[in-house]
Write a structure and sequence with these properties.
224 residues; single chain; alpha+beta
Length: 224
């Protein structure tokens, strides 16, 4: 009899040990698993944010560098005086300058879009255009409300704007010029002072879609 009771107790113990998880154990396991998933999701989002932020910043820097190099090469090999055309006039006038026969026309602080520009958001179909040979004799920048002239080239990409661009002679020198270019990427709502020369990205507001790059250099004319 004792042997039978021993075997019965042993079976009951084994059955108890082989029983499934309790509700509390399942809740704890679910909570731990959910926390792991949340941590993974946060990590993926941060990586995605950093990735696109890096691409945006790189593209903006490359655009500013490309503009700087374009102007620098024209100055080095033009052998001509740099002239500053007058504005076209209007509420949002284009400005520009000529280096020899190459004309640069720009609309400061306006964001380049491919279609359907929203004036209230300072969007335009053209923001920085080089045309060669440009019409420099009349001392006027290209009118962006009209079709671009033949040989015109847009120098920045979509969602970018030129906040600052200047070519000035270095005082007391001959044929030496200082070039300063500031390019901003982003919509108006992501920027502080979007149309000003000191436009900057708002902190913590879509920073992966906003970037600023300002470059400057001094160039000597090689051909006089």
């Amino acid at each position: 009899m004792q042997k039978i009771n021993f075997l019965a107790n042993k079976r009951r113990n084994l059955a108890h040990q082989q029983a499934g998880f309790t509700i509390i154990e399942l809740l704890i396991a679910t909570l731990v698993f959910s926390m792991v998933l949340i941590l993974i999701a946060v990590g993926v989002l941060q990586f995605n944010h950093a990735y696109y932020s890096g691409i945006t910043q790189t593209d903006t820097q490359n655009t500013a560098r490309s503009i700087l190099e374009e102007i620098s090469q024209d100055i080095q090999f033009s052998g001509s005086q740099i002239t500053s055309p007058i504005a076209n006039g209007g509420t949002d006038p284009e400005h520009g300058f000529c280096i020899g026969s190459d004309r640069y026309s720009y609309r400061l602080g306006w964001e380049l879009v491919s279609s359907g520009p929203n004036v209230a958001k300072h969007q335009t179909l053209h923001a920085l255009v080089k045309d060669s040979p440009g019409i420099c004799s009349g001392m006027s920048a290209q009118d962006f409300t009209k079709p671009l002239a033949n040989g015109s080239q847009e120098l920045i990409s979509q969602y970018m704007r030129v906040s600052k661009i200047s070519v000035t002679p270095v005082s007391g020198t001959t044929g030496l010029y200082n070039i300063d270019v500031r390019v901003v990427y982003g919509d108006d709502d992501l920027l502080t002072n979007p149309t000003a020369s000191n436009a900057t990205c708002k902190i913590g507001s879509g920073s992966q879609f906003c970037a600023v790059s300002e470059l400057s250099t001094v160039v000597q004319q090689r051909i006089q």
